[in-house]
Model the fold of this input.
Amino acid sequence: MTNVYSFDGILVFGLLFVCTCAYLKKVPRLNNWLLSEKKGVWGVFYKAAVIGTRLHLAVALCCLCMAFYLIFMK
Done:
């Protein structure tokens, strides 16, 4: 298990957040409801979705590296 208050936990949370927002951007109803705001607190979801869709290869590689680190090295 990873601790949320460690650096590893923060990286895992950030990667999962970006991946989840990118997935929610593909669902039409949730896209209109959750990702319609581009500013403010709700804008964080939109910005994470944009990062996840534009840098999908880099995010996927980071997820694989983090999974390898958590399973085999920690």
Remarks:
- The helical segments are 7-26, 28-34, 43-54, 56-73.
- The radius of gyration is 14 Å.
- Residues 35 and 71 are 33 Å apart (CA to CA).
